[in-house]
Predict the 3D structure of the following.
Amino acid sequence: MAVNLEVLLKHLDELLKPEQISDYCPNGLQLEGRPEIRKIVSGVTASQALVDAAIAANADALLVHHGYFWRGEDPCVKGIKKRRLAALIKADISLLAYHLPLDIHPTYGNNVQLAKRLGIEIEGGLEADNPKSVGLYGRLPEPMSATEFNDWITEVLGRTPLHIDGGDKQVQRIGWCTGAAQGYIDQAISLDLDAYISGEVSESTVHTARESGIHYFSAGHHATERYGVQALGEQVSQHFGIEHQFIDIDNPV
Protein backbone atom coordinates (compact mmCIF):
# COMPACT_ATOMS: atom_id res chain seq x y z
CA MET A 1 0.00 0.00 0.00
CA ALA A 2 1.03 3.61 -0.58
CA VAL A 3 -0.39 7.06 0.05
CA ASN A 4 0.29 10.24 -1.83
CA LEU A 5 2.30 12.75 0.20
CA GLU A 6 -0.30 15.51 -0.26
CA VAL A 7 -3.08 13.18 0.93
CA LEU A 8 -1.03 12.25 3.98
CA LEU A 9 -0.36 15.91 4.80
CA LYS A 10 -4.03 16.80 4.45
CA HIS A 11 -4.93 13.98 6.84
CA LEU A 12 -2.37 15.11 9.43
CA ASP A 13 -3.50 18.73 9.16
CA GLU A 14 -7.12 17.68 9.71
CA LEU A 15 -6.08 15.67 12.78
CA LEU A 16 -3.71 18.16 14.40
CA LYS A 17 -5.02 21.52 13.10
CA PRO A 18 -1.62 23.25 13.27
CA GLU A 19 -3.01 26.46 11.75
CA GLN A 20 -4.88 27.07 15.01
CA ILE A 21 -1.73 27.05 17.16
CA SER A 22 1.01 29.66 17.50
CA ASP A 23 4.29 27.79 17.64
CA TYR A 24 8.08 28.25 17.65
CA CYS A 25 8.61 26.41 14.36
CA PRO A 26 6.77 25.52 11.14
CA ASN A 27 4.46 22.52 11.58
CA GLY A 28 3.79 20.03 8.81
CA LEU A 29 5.98 19.44 5.77
CA GLN A 30 9.46 20.87 6.37
CA LEU A 31 11.22 19.09 3.51
CA GLU A 32 9.56 17.56 0.44
CA GLY A 33 10.66 14.13 -0.74
CA ARG A 34 9.16 11.51 -3.04
CA PRO A 35 5.43 11.80 -3.76
CA GLU A 36 4.41 8.27 -2.73
CA ILE A 37 4.73 7.08 0.86
CA ARG A 38 4.90 3.36 1.60
CA LYS A 39 6.86 3.49 4.84
CA ILE A 40 6.98 6.17 7.50
CA VAL A 41 9.59 6.25 10.26
CA SER A 42 8.83 8.22 13.41
CA GLY A 43 11.11 9.52 16.14
CA VAL A 44 11.37 12.31 18.68
CA THR A 45 14.03 14.56 17.14
CA ALA A 46 15.33 14.77 13.56
CA SER A 47 18.94 14.34 14.64
CA GLN A 48 21.59 13.02 12.28
CA ALA A 49 21.35 9.63 13.99
CA LEU A 50 17.61 9.43 13.35
CA VAL A 51 18.00 10.64 9.76
CA ASP A 52 20.63 7.96 9.13
CA ALA A 53 18.43 5.30 10.76
CA ALA A 54 15.44 6.34 8.63
CA ILE A 55 17.54 6.07 5.47
CA ALA A 56 18.77 2.63 6.52
CA ALA A 57 15.16 1.58 7.19
CA ASN A 58 14.15 2.61 3.65
CA ALA A 59 11.70 5.24 4.85
CA ASP A 60 9.79 7.43 2.44
CA ALA A 61 8.94 9.98 5.15
CA LEU A 62 10.30 10.87 8.57
CA LEU A 63 7.72 12.02 11.16
CA VAL A 64 9.13 13.82 14.21
CA HIS A 65 8.16 16.01 17.16
CA HIS A 66 11.30 18.17 16.98
CA GLY A 67 12.12 19.21 13.43
CA TYR A 68 14.06 22.20 12.07
CA PHE A 69 13.77 25.96 11.48
CA TRP A 70 13.13 27.06 15.06
CA ARG A 71 12.35 30.69 15.83
CA GLY A 72 15.51 32.62 16.69
CA GLU A 73 17.98 30.07 15.29
CA ASP A 74 20.49 30.89 12.55
CA PRO A 75 18.50 30.52 9.29
CA CYS A 76 21.60 29.70 7.23
CA VAL A 77 21.80 26.10 5.99
CA LYS A 78 25.30 25.11 7.04
CA GLY A 79 27.10 22.74 9.39
CA ILE A 80 24.82 20.31 11.23
CA LYS A 81 21.66 21.57 9.51
CA LYS A 82 23.23 21.28 6.05
CA ARG A 83 24.41 17.70 6.69
CA ARG A 84 21.00 16.58 7.98
CA LEU A 85 19.07 18.19 5.13
CA ALA A 86 21.56 16.98 2.52
CA ALA A 87 21.14 13.40 3.71
CA LEU A 88 17.35 13.62 3.54
CA ILE A 89 17.42 15.27 0.11
CA LYS A 90 19.83 12.67 -1.28
CA ALA A 91 17.56 9.87 0.00
CA ASP A 92 14.44 11.74 -1.27
CA ILE A 93 12.79 11.47 2.18
CA SER A 94 10.14 13.94 3.32
CA LEU A 95 10.43 15.48 6.77
CA LEU A 96 7.18 16.05 8.66
CA ALA A 97 7.33 17.78 12.05
CA TYR A 98 4.60 18.63 14.56
CA HIS A 99 5.55 20.36 17.79
CA LEU A 100 2.86 21.99 19.96
CA PRO A 101 0.00 20.49 17.90
CA LEU A 102 1.30 17.07 18.92
CA ASP A 103 1.83 18.07 22.56
CA ILE A 104 -1.78 19.14 23.05
CA HIS A 105 -3.74 16.70 20.90
CA PRO A 106 -6.52 15.06 23.00
CA THR A 107 -5.85 11.58 21.59
CA TYR A 108 -2.35 11.38 20.13
CA GLY A 109 -0.69 14.15 22.15
CA ASN A 110 2.42 13.63 24.25
CA ASN A 111 0.65 14.62 27.46
CA VAL A 112 -2.37 12.40 26.91
CA GLN A 113 -0.19 9.47 25.89
CA LEU A 114 2.05 9.89 28.96
CA ALA A 115 -1.02 9.91 31.22
CA LYS A 116 -2.27 6.74 29.53
CA ARG A 117 0.97 4.93 30.31
CA LEU A 118 1.17 6.15 33.89
CA GLY A 119 -2.48 5.34 34.58
CA ILE A 120 -3.48 8.94 35.39
CA GLU A 121 -7.12 9.92 34.87
CA ILE A 122 -7.17 13.34 33.20
CA GLU A 123 -9.31 15.96 34.95
CA GLY A 124 -8.39 19.20 33.18
CA GLY A 125 -5.75 21.61 31.95
CA LEU A 126 -3.15 23.34 34.10
CA GLU A 127 -4.05 26.61 32.36
CA ALA A 128 -7.63 27.00 33.54
CA ASP A 129 -8.60 29.70 31.01
CA ASN A 130 -6.90 28.06 28.03
CA PRO A 131 -8.91 25.37 26.16
CA LYS A 132 -5.63 24.40 24.44
CA SER A 133 -3.66 24.05 27.68
CA VAL A 134 -0.43 22.15 27.07
CA GLY A 135 -0.09 20.92 30.65
CA LEU A 136 -2.71 18.72 32.29
CA TYR A 137 -3.68 17.49 35.74
CA GLY A 138 -5.47 14.41 37.03
CA ARG A 139 -5.36 11.64 39.58
CA LEU A 140 -4.16 8.12 40.17
CA PRO A 141 -6.78 5.47 41.05
CA GLU A 142 -5.04 4.97 44.41
CA PRO A 143 -2.48 7.11 46.24
CA MET A 144 1.18 6.08 46.27
CA SER A 145 4.12 7.13 48.34
CA ALA A 146 6.54 9.40 46.51
CA THR A 147 9.05 6.54 46.41
CA GLU A 148 6.48 4.17 44.92
CA PHE A 149 5.51 6.72 42.30
CA ASN A 150 9.15 7.37 41.45
CA ASP A 151 9.62 3.61 40.96
CA TRP A 152 6.47 3.50 38.79
CA ILE A 153 7.77 6.26 36.50
CA THR A 154 11.08 4.40 36.27
CA GLU A 155 9.32 1.18 35.27
CA VAL A 156 7.10 2.85 32.66
CA LEU A 157 9.71 5.13 31.06
CA GLY A 158 12.72 2.87 31.47
CA ARG A 159 14.75 5.55 33.25
CA THR A 160 14.94 6.92 36.77
CA PRO A 161 13.57 10.47 37.14
CA LEU A 162 15.08 13.14 39.32
CA HIS A 163 12.78 13.37 42.34
CA ILE A 164 12.72 16.52 44.42
CA ASP A 165 11.07 15.61 47.72
CA GLY A 166 8.08 17.77 48.58
CA GLY A 167 7.49 16.32 52.04
CA ASP A 168 5.73 13.28 53.45
CA LYS A 169 2.42 13.64 51.55
CA GLN A 170 1.32 10.79 49.32
CA VAL A 171 0.93 11.20 45.57
CA GLN A 172 -2.52 11.00 43.98
CA ARG A 173 -3.39 14.34 42.36
CA ILE A 174 -0.75 15.09 39.74
CA GLY A 175 0.05 17.77 37.21
CA TRP A 176 2.32 17.13 34.23
CA CYS A 177 3.65 18.57 31.02
CA THR A 178 6.17 16.79 28.81
CA GLY A 179 9.38 18.36 27.56
CA ALA A 180 10.86 21.62 28.83
CA ALA A 181 7.86 22.59 30.93
CA GLN A 182 9.24 22.98 34.43
CA GLY A 183 7.66 26.44 34.69
CA TYR A 184 4.18 24.91 34.89
CA ILE A 185 5.00 23.82 38.42
CA ASP A 186 3.48 27.14 39.55
CA GLN A 187 0.09 26.16 38.11
CA ALA A 188 0.38 22.76 39.80
CA ILE A 189 1.03 24.49 43.12
CA SER A 190 -1.94 26.82 42.64
CA LEU A 191 -4.16 23.74 42.15
CA ASP A 192 -2.81 22.26 45.40
CA LEU A 193 -1.60 19.12 43.63
CA ASP A 194 0.55 16.49 45.32
CA ALA A 195 3.11 16.20 42.53
CA TYR A 196 4.26 17.68 39.25
CA ILE A 197 6.06 15.94 36.37
CA SER A 198 7.94 17.54 33.51
CA GLY A 199 10.74 16.54 31.19
CA GLU A 200 13.42 19.04 32.12
CA VAL A 201 14.33 20.77 35.37
CA SER A 202 15.79 24.18 36.20
CA GLU A 203 17.83 25.13 39.24
CA SER A 204 15.02 27.28 40.56
CA THR A 205 12.45 24.47 40.19
CA VAL A 206 14.16 22.55 42.99
CA HIS A 207 13.68 25.36 45.48
CA THR A 208 10.11 26.00 44.33
CA ALA A 209 9.17 22.36 44.91
CA ARG A 210 10.84 22.12 48.32
CA GLU A 211 9.43 25.38 49.61
CA SER A 212 5.92 24.73 48.26
CA GLY A 213 5.66 21.17 49.53
CA ILE A 214 5.03 19.53 46.16
CA HIS A 215 6.82 16.43 44.87
CA TYR A 216 8.58 17.17 41.61
CA PHE A 217 9.73 14.58 39.09
CA SER A 218 11.99 15.50 36.19
CA ALA A 219 11.51 12.47 33.94
CA GLY A 220 13.44 13.55 30.84
CA HIS A 221 12.53 15.71 27.85
CA HIS A 222 13.14 12.88 25.39
CA ALA A 223 11.70 10.14 27.61
CA THR A 224 8.40 11.95 28.18
CA GLU A 225 7.95 12.83 24.50
CA ARG A 226 8.43 9.41 22.87
CA TYR A 227 4.79 8.43 22.90
CA GLY A 228 2.86 11.05 20.93
CA VAL A 229 4.78 10.59 17.70
CA GLN A 230 4.49 6.80 18.06
CA ALA A 231 0.73 7.02 18.48
CA LEU A 232 0.44 9.38 15.51
CA GLY A 233 2.61 7.13 13.34
CA GLU A 234 0.44 4.13 14.22
CA GLN A 235 -2.73 6.07 13.41
CA VAL A 236 -1.37 6.98 9.99
CA SER A 237 -0.24 3.40 9.40
CA GLN A 238 -3.65 1.94 10.19
CA HIS A 239 -5.59 4.63 8.32
CA PHE A 240 -3.66 4.29 5.06
CA GLY A 241 -2.38 0.73 5.35
CA ILE A 242 1.28 1.79 5.13
CA GLU A 243 4.24 0.59 7.19
CA HIS A 244 5.30 2.47 10.31
CA GLN A 245 8.46 2.04 12.38
CA PHE A 246 9.33 4.04 15.50
CA ILE A 247 13.08 4.46 16.03
CA ASP A 248 14.21 5.57 19.47
CA ILE A 249 17.53 7.46 19.47
CA ASP A 250 18.35 7.51 23.18
CA ASN A 251 18.89 10.87 24.83
CA PRO A 252 19.64 11.21 28.58
CA VAL A 253 18.03 14.67 28.79
Summary: The CA atoms of residues 159 and 243 lie 29 Å apart. The longest helix spans residues 227-240. The mean pLDDT is 97. The chain has two domains: 3-102+225-246, 104-221.
